[in-house]
Amino acid sequence: MSRLTASLKSQGWAIAWTVFILILCSIKMPASDGSAGFFFAGFDKMVHLGFFFVLTILLFFGRIRSKHNYSFRKLTIFKIILITAGLGGGIELMQLAFFDYRGAEWWDFACDMFGVMMGIFSYMLLHKFDFHENKI
How far apart are alpha carbons 67 and 65 in whole angstroms? Predict the structure, then answer.
């Protein structure tokens, strides 16, 4: 099995979640015209944040599975930021260019990146936790 194939296989959950995000960001949703939102005002922003938080965690999980360790590398974090920023920006451009029932918003992209930063922070916090002595 090639290195790329093994890497993609370990990222299976992240790839599936990305497809899920793309589908949900492409379909027409109730109140996607900027009004109160699906459940309450700002619900759309929370969804973006949650989508990208989970995606970030799944990307870290896939990396851990492929490398068989929990090593903390700045390059991994940089790659995750690039991948998720590309996806978030691509979704907003797709909504701007192809869908008349969806709109591109800077705040959606910002919430995507807040979710990514929350995921990175969670990984860094848990990585620094000393599990053997139960100390932070």
Answer: 6
